[in-house]
Amino acid sequence: TSLISLGTEGRVNQSSQTYVAYAWHSVEGYSKFGTFIGNNTDNDGPFCYLGFRPRLLAIKGATEAYPWFVFDSARNPHNLVDKHLRWNGNDAEATEPTGARKVDFLSNGFKVMADEASLNGSGDTYVYMAWGDVPFKYNNTF
């Protein structure tokens, strides 16, 4: 819980190189970090329970070379959320004209609504990071 071990892998622990590491943990009603398995189904992908409506959501394939796709409720105040940033890509803000990369922000989590391999490949594992808009336990919407 207080120690990070990098081992001897050169891509993350090479002598005389500078690295940055971020270590987060889930805080009920505020943030959640986890994984999901893709099903490659358009408009009916995996649902991830967060306990709040996302304000910022980042998704990346765990083993693929795809960039981080970052969605937020400021760029898309209404669903479906398809405008996104790529933290480690060459482009700035992007909107998929075909709706290939899109998610649904729900009051208690998010649902992937794309059949694009970079977000929802069949059997692929994806990691996500989410920070809340209105914590579900404080939301008085019925």
Structure in words:
It is a single chain. The chain has about 140 residues and is an all-beta fold. The protein contains one helix and nine strands. It has one helix at about 115-120, and strands at about 30-35, 45-50, 50-60, 70, 85, 95, 105, 110, 125-135. The strands form two sheets. It has a six-stranded antiparallel sheet with strand order 1-9-3-4-5-6. The longest helix is centred in the last third of the chain and has 4 residues, at about 115-120. The N and C termini lie far apart (about 40 Å).
Question: Spans of 5+ residues with little confidence (pLDDT < 50)?
Answer: none
Which whole number gives the mean pLDDT?
84
Structural class per helix/strand content?
mainly beta
Number of helices: 1
Tell me the radius of gyration.
Answer: 16 Å
Q: Give the helix proportion (percent range).
A: under 10%
Number of strands: 9
Largest sheet strand order: 1-9-3-4-5-6
Quaternary structure classification? single chain
Report the β-strand fraction as a percent range. 25-35%
Q: In whole angstroms, how far apart are the ends?
A: 38 Å
Largest sheet: 6 strands, antiparallel
Order of helices and strands: EEEEEEEEHE
Shape descriptor: globular
